[in-house]
């Protein structure tokens, strides 16, 4: 079987990682672990957050779009009705999901803009906790509204505990430095970011559930987001790319923490309910905190250690299968039309 060079190797790598982990929740957590390394890589790059995020999304989106075009469907379900196609567009159009994925691409870009605007207005700790913590809640609600299946109690309690652990982990060491109240517009932007994240996660899960190759779904969403974010990168400037350290860090951010991470995330969504996946993605701040501790020489307060422990236990409760579904299963009922 012939093989397109270079870019499909990312698909091959994600496939083999999935085979090694053999578990949808663990694959999602592997993606979250890669996301958790982004902060450390950003420090190494030595660039401002907004242009760095734009560069990360432009590069990662371009790689994912190229993978979607070059990689052939690898599983029987992906070949249904489109076995001869190597192009992403026929797969998407044939299932009536085009506009949903276009809107999801806008949501991917919008999340980046909302998150950094929120952090600028209300601070890193509060902005991060609200944006990341609200994501699983919004995902569960959207999944419930669209899929008509309410969350289980286990998922609800574990998610609440995980969000609380995330809040304590992120805010525990910074509590003493917070002055004044939180900016309401900053909180609103962070909540909007969480809602946008939930929207594109649910759209991706529904598209994958309808048989579209996960790499195609991610390629369409993030390729579109890359086009949207390119003007942001051009306006804010990318002078740090002239330095080897900045260039290497940006390559890592785009290829590993975006392209590879979302290939893994897409594969995890094949067998993991989207609300559960959103909760498991809260492993990101835990990995970021541990990397800051080990690589950057940062310190965690006892309160933050407690938050880290609570977060870890909550994620374990979500990841370990039980007798009932841990979250609302995102399925596309036959009577529903295209993704909203």
Automatic annotation (TrEMBL):
The chain crosses the membrane at residues 26-47, 53-71, 92-118, 124-146, 155-179, 185-204, 216-241, 247-265, 277-297, 303-321. Coiled coil: none annotated. It is found in: Membrane. Signal peptide: none annotated. It comes from the Bacteria. The keyword Transmembrane helix applies. GO terms for cellular component: membrane. Keywords: Membrane, Transmembrane, Transmembrane helix. Residues 23-170, 185-317 form the EamA domain. It is a multi-pass membrane protein. The keyword Membrane applies. PANTHER family: EAMA DOMAIN-CONTAINING PROTEIN, INNER MEMBRANE TRANSPORTER. Belongs to the EamA transporter family. This is EamA domain-containing protein. It comes from Planotetraspora phitsanulokensis.
């Amino acid at each position: 079987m012939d093989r397109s060079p270079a870019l499909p190797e990312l698909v091959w790598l994600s496939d083999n990682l999935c085979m090694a982990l053999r578990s949808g929740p663990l694959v999602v957590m592997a993606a979250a672990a890669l996301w958790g390394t982004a902060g450390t890589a950003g420090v190494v790059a030595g660039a401002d957050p907004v242009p760095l995020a734009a560069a990360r999304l432009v590069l990662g989106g371009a790689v994912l779009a190229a993978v979607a075009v070059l990689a052939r469907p690898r599983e029987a379900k992906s070949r249904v009705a489109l076995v001869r196609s190597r192009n992403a567009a026929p797969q998407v159009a044939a299932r009536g999901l085009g506009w949903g994925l276009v809107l999801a691409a806008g949501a991917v870009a919008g999340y980046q803009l909302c998150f950094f605007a929120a952090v600028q207005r209300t601070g890193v700790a509060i902005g991060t906790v609200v944006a990341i913590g609200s994501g699983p809640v919004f995902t569960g609600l959207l999944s419930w509204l669209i899929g008509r299946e309410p969350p289980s109690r286990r998922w609800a309690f574990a998610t609440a505990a995980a969000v609380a652990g995330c809040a304590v982990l992120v805010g525990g060491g910074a509590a003493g430095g917070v002055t004044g109240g939180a900016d309401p517009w900053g909180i609103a932007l962070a909540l909007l970011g969480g809602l946008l994240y939930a929207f594109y996660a649910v759209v991706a899960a529904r598209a994958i559930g309808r048989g579209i190759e996960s790499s195609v779904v991610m390629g369409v969403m993030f390729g579109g987001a890359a086009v949207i974010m390119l003007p942001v990168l051009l306006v804010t400037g990318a002078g740090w790319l002239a330095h080897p350290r900045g260039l290497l860090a940006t390559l890592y951010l785009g290829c590993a923490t975006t392209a590879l991470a979302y290939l893994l995330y897409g594969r995890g969504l094949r067998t993991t309910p989207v609300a559960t996946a959103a909760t498991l993605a809260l492993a990101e701040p835990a990995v970021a905190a541990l990397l800051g501790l080990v690589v950057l020489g940062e310190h965690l307060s006892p309160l933050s250690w407690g938050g880290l422990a609570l977060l870890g236990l909550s994620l374990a409760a979500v990841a370990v299968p039980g007798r009932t579904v841990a979250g609302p299963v995102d399925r596309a009922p036959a009577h529903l039309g295209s993704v909203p």
